[in-house]
Amino acid sequence: MRTLFLFSLLVNSLYLFSQNIYFEPYYSKSFAVEKSDFTFVSSNTTFYYDDSVNSDYHTVTYHKSLGAGNNYGLLIGYKFPKGIISTEIDFRYFSNNVLTFNSQDYYDFPEEPNYHIEYNDTYNLRSTSFSITPSLKVEVYYKRWGLFLKSGLLFAKCSIDYEVETSIFNTHPSYYPFESYSEIIEYKPKWELGIQGAIGVEYQLDSWIVLNVGIQYNAFGHRPESATMTEYKYRGEDKLNSLTISEKEFIFSDSYMSADNASEDKPTVMERLTYTYSSMAIRFGVQIIIPNKKVKEGE
Asked: Can you give the pTM of this predicted structure?
């Protein structure tokens, strides 16, 4: 008898608890709020027969953000009995809009006007992140319409891939007329901390379906610590194994000296940069509530 009573108490407790749980798949389109600087140098170099060289350099800085792109998420929430405050945990996958940059280098020989060399570099930067955000949500309802506000801490694991395509056009008789290089550099994924907040409106279709739309703000940055070249091809042929460690492994540091890069047997040390992912997003979600006998006023 006692066992039956305890089992009944457990079942009823789980039932009452489950009536306050909801799930919400959602999609959001994010737009850049802050931007990072990406600087590339192009050049024009002239070679003369007297061995003199004249170079003209042009620096181009792009202001881009890794925060613009598409978000796909699922959150799990628990609504406290009063029906105003909820706690949520949000699981989100983000993929950025691919960022593309270009630079060119030209080499001319005035005494040989038919000789010309041209380098064209294209850089494609791709980034993804997976985030977990525990948050607190406050909502008020009038009949079927609701207004919500929520905020929380964001834990994001960020990944960056850099793809570089180099095309070389050459009219000099000692070289191939066309050459190509391709390489992929993968930054080691790293967890970052940020904040997330949202405001929006809800409409309750029935006792277990709620539609919502809102504006979401995400604020966090990414500071990679290291990277590795995972692909290097010359004219389509794999040449990765021909590179030294210093040519295919990289460490990012806030400060370093030229002596740190004296050896080919050690990773190259480079300046450590911060990439911003801060964004504003338009968010659409469908909240699925575990059926409850009690429904909101107005149904």
From this structure: 0.82
